[in-house]
Amino acid sequence: MRNIQKTIVLITGASYGIGAATARAFGRRGAHVLLLARTQSALEDVARDIRASGGAASVYPVDLTDARAVEEVAQQVLAAFGPPDILLSNAGAGRWLFIDETTPDEAVAMMAMPYFAAFSITRAFLPSMRARGRGHLAYVNSPASLVAWPGAAAYTAARWALRGFVEALRAELHGTRLRVTTIIPGLVATTYFEHNPGVLERVPGLARRLLPVLTADQAAAAIVRGIEHGRREIVLPGMLRLLYAAYAIAPGLVQYLTILTGARHDRRP
């Protein structure tokens, strides 16, 4: 099991929700947490919490969809701390919309984060992590990266792009001492749902009936525990793991039930 104490942990999307909760959890374990997101004031609040609990935190406000800005921040981090021991790409955005409800600009924005944000932060730190010969890269994705459901077309495409990127990264790092972890949380009570009204109504009934809603702290605890144990995949809660197992055995049935209990498009002219 990995010892988190005194490690450097970099987290994107660290200002709210799962990212902030996971940053606090790592801080309590004795890591020095590097917090990246767009809003400096929110990052400072998280850093204050970490320091109050005896941990260490540094704040790096950055637009993670701006590849040049990400590279500049990476150079600052490398100069101050060297390559992170753990890089957690958590930043994500995007509304659940049917295709004809989604503007082209919004589709591009959904691909920019999480996919291009994950690509840019990985590309910025991967050479130094490889040169050092160790490290752990982890990526927060969505159940939409495996099973598509109605009413979230561009969101699903972005999540599949992230899934493909992580699998390609894992293939490229085969035989090295760098670990790669995929994190798939189910329903987590965060401000995401407040900022995206109507999303909960588009969660397929299959998931609403079977999956308990987790708190951000519960998700964070599972993420930290999974990274400590070097897991290849962290899927939570347990019922979602069962659904994944069912999908592996009978993908057509699970896909059919997901569509059957999913959102219905208004087809009126």
Automatic annotation (TrEMBL):
GO MF annotations in UniProt: oxidoreductase activity
Family matches, as InterPro entries: NAD(P)-bd_dom_sf, SDR_fam
GO cellular component assignments: membrane
Chain ranges passing through the membrane: 7-26, 107-126, 242-263
The UniProt record lists the keyword Iron: no
Keyword field: Membrane, Oxidoreductase, Transmembrane, Transmembrane helix
Top-level division of the source organism's lineage: Bacteria
Protein family membership: Belongs to the short-chain dehydrogenases/reductases (SDR) family.
Protein name per its UniProtKB record: Short-chain dehydrogenase/reductase SDR
Organism this protein belongs to: Roseiflexus castenholzii (strain DSM 13941 / HLO8)
